[in-house]
């Protein structure tokens, strides 16, 4: 079928991606993509390397300002900033906005790692003006989160939040990065997933080791988040990882 034969934009995008390309087209597109990827890494490293110790806050872009999780994320970010850490978020609305807002109100560093998406994403007004970075590639953006964070605070979210959570757990589990705190906020939200991991992955399928469950903690309040961070860094006496 021809591109114009499809009725909706999604089908047209799929058809365009599957369209047979010449070797010259493939080589040219891929070559230029490499330079674009390199530029995003260089810009990210140069910008983030000047920022002090930070904690990343993840969560849904769809969370409304009146939602309890939004308000909790704001309190968590405020307390984190008062404890001496900066806050890194994905830079968008929802939980990300709450994280940047809490850091801003607490007088701390407020970083936003934005990415262009067909829906939901637009940068929020609480990011420090010199710390608002934009990315086209998810994998470059995730490198910045991991390389320049001293901890992850994971609020309730969707597929993107789960992706970031399991990326961090996998990198620590496989010792590709040093261990740092991964804090899941909201027992009622996370308990079903954790129970499934225990009963299916650990006990039934044996695809995860029981000790891997120690790679993260579940809490419910802003004070517990700060306590976990402070206890971890007091125990290991770790310095910023850059």
From TrEMBL:
Which domain of life does the UniProt lineage start with? Bacteria
List, alphabetically, the SUPFAM superfamilies matched: MCP/YpsA-like
What keywords appear on the UniProt entry?
Cytokinin biosynthesis, Hydrolase
**Protein name in UniProt:** Cytokinin riboside 5'-monophosphate phosphoribohydrolase
Q: Does the keyword Hydrolase apply?
A: yes
What the record says about family reads: Belongs to the LOG family.
Is Hydrolase one of the keywords UniProt gives this record? yes
Quote the EC number.
Answer: 3.2.2.n1
Q: Which GO terms describe its cellular component?
A: cytosol
Which molecular-function annotation in GO is an example for this chain? AMP nucleosidase activity
Organism annotation? Flavobacterium xueshanense
């Amino acid at each position: 079928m021809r591109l114009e034969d499809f009725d909706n934009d999604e089908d047209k995008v799929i058809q365009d991606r599957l369209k047979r390309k010449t070797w010259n087209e493939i080589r040219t597109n891929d070559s230029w993509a490499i330079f674009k990827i390199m530029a995003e890494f260089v810009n990210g490293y140069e910008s983030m390397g000047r920022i002090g110790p930070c904690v990343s806050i993840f969560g849904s872009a769809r969370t409304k300002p009146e939602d309890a999780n939004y308000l909790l994320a704001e309190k968590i970010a405020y307390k984190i900033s008062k404890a001496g850490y900066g806050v890194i978020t994905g830079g968008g609305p929802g939980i990300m906005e709450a994280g940047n807002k809490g850091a801003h109100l607490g007088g701390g560093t407020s970083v936003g790692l934005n990415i262009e998406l067909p829906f939901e994403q637009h940068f929020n007004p609480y990011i420090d003006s010199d710390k608002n970075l934009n990315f086209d590639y998810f994998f470059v953006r995730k490198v910045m989160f991991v390389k320049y964070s001293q901890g992850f605070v994971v609020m309730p979210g969707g597929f993107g939040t789960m992706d970031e959570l399991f990326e961090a757990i996998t990198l620590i589990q496989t010792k590709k990065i040093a261990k740092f705190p991964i804090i899941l906020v909201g027992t009622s939200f996370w308990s079903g997933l954790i129970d499934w991991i225990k009963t299916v992955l650990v006990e039934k399928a044996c695809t995860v080791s029981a000790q891997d469950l120690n790679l993260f903690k579940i809490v419910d309040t802003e004070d517990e988040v700060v306590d976990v961070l402070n206890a971890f860094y007091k125990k290991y006496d770790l310095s910023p990882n850059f």
